[in-house]
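From the methods appendix. Each design record in this collection lists the tokenized structure first, followed by the designed amino acid sequence. Records were kept in a plain field format so they could be parsed without special tools. The example shown here is representative of the layout used throughout.

RECORD:
FOLD TOKENS (435 positions):
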């Protein structure tokens, strides 16, 4: 039966010997690529038509990992977002641009193309046509880039909520730390300039003052840098205090009393994404209850049993809140994104009582993509400890190896995962189910 069904296809292929099979196979590989594979597969697909030393994709779709890179390590390990942003400003929509631009710390010849639907850009360093027809080869590269950029959009759209949570958590932390660095070092530079320009300091005194200020600034810079290389964690009491500050305006203008039962001060610190999601969930529940008639009081309480963040929100209304309401369904999806549970008890005449449990340590459920990273057993162990927010010294003690060995494995992980920082490695690991 199957032989008969397949025969027309075989006959058709027999009379089409000149089909561009390598190109078709490259298209198929791109269509099937995961986010972690997309840069490598796009480079493999473009090399027969446009040679390059490295390929870099810069996309705002993946906020936690906006760069996707393949090729020469000395380029892809040093290219910065600032350089890519500067290059993007000179590009017109979908029009290839050949020129010279600063990339990975020095001026290089590049080919850059923007994908206007997402504002993503493709950059090829040291481009040179490898086929006989330059224009045709460039058209193929543009086509493959449009396919890849569209695939990135689809992958992000279809990604599990946990991936999006981690991506945004990593992005938000980078923005916060960058803002801190900007404020801190703009002040330092102003002081340095003031010391150098001062007419009241002689040369030796100015030099001594500037040296001391610079040394202090370097120490502060390293301290802030350490903060970006660890997983974001928030003390449970501090996370609850931020929630109370967020909701305080409601108590002032709504006429509804919101009572806060604070968690124990010594409760376990919450992973950043859990603290962020918990505040969003409670805000959503409180707003949904306030929209119900005859509600005069809402009570919210947090607790932590060491393994889960336990949330309780209840009102004193008539118990008319609908468990199937769109607002409650959206909040339930956020809870499920963190493998949590939401239970809602509605008592007619007595109000609604909602319980949420969010696990602090999600079970390790590596996706199939993890195997494609080709990690050694020890590298995978180190990555799992990184994803849990542990520092190198703690990892070394747990695994019974030296801290230098841990650093060696971390460098290998950065190369294999195609990331440039600890935060990016953690976000990528979390998006693939490693905790």
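DESIGN:
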């Amino acid at each position: 039966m199957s032989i008969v069904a397949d025969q027309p296809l075989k006959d058709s292929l027999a009379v089409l010997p000149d089909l561009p099979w390598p190109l078709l196979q490259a298209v198929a590989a791109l269509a099937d690529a995961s986010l972690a594979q997309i840069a490598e597969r796009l480079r493999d697909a473009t090399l027969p038509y446009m040679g390059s030393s490295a390929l870099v994709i810069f996309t705002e779709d993946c906020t936690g990992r906006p760069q996707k890179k393949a090729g020469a390590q000395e380029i892809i390990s040093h290219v910065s977002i600032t350089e890519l942003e500067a290059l993007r400003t000179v590009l017109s929509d979908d029009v290839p641009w050949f020129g010279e631009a600063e990339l990975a710390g020095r001026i290089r010849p590049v080919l850059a193309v923007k994908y206007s639907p997402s504002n993503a850009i493709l950059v090829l360093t040291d481009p040179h046509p490898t086929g006989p027809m330059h224009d045709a080869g460039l058209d193929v590269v543009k086509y493959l880039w449009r396919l890849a950029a569209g695939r990135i959009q689809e992958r992000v759209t279809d990604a599990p909520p946990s991936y999006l949570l981690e991506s945004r958590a990593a992005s938000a932390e980078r923005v916060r730390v960058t803002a801190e660095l900007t404020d801190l070092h703009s002040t330092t530079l102003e002081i340095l300039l003031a010391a150098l320009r001062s007419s009241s300091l002689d040369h030796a005194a100015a030099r001594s003052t500037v040296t001391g200020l610079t040394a202090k600034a370097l120490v502060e810079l390293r301290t802030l840098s350490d903060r970006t290389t660890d997983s974001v964690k928030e003390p449970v009491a501090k996370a609850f205090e931020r929630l109370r500050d967020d909701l305080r305006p409601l108590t002032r203008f709504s006429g509804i009393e919101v009572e806060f039962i604070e968690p124990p001060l010594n409760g376990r610190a919450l992973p950043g994404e859990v603290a962020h999601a918990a505040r969003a969930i409670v805000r959503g529940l409180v707003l949904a209850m306030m929209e119900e008639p005859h509600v005069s009081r809402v009570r919210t309480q947090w607790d932590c049993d060491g393994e889960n963040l336990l949330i309780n929100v209840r009102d004193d209304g008539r118990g008319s809140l609908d468990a199937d309401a769109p607002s409650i369904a959206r909040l339930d999806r956020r809870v499920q994104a963190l493998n949590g549970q939401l239970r809602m008890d509605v008592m007619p005449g007595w109000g609604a009582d909602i319980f949420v449990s969010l696990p602090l340590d999600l079970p390790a459920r590596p996706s199939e993509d993890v195997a494609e990273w080709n990690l050694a057993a020890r590298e995978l162990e180190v990555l799992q400890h990184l994803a849990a927010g542990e520092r190198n010294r703690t990892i070394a003690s747990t695994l019974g190896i030296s801290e230098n060995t841990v650093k060696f494995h971390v460098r290998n992980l950065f190369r294999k995962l195609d990331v440039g920082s600890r935060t990016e490695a953690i976000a990528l690991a979390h998006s693939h189910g490693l905790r």
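APPENDIX NOTE: Residues 1-7, 225-231 have pLDDT under 50 and may be disordered.
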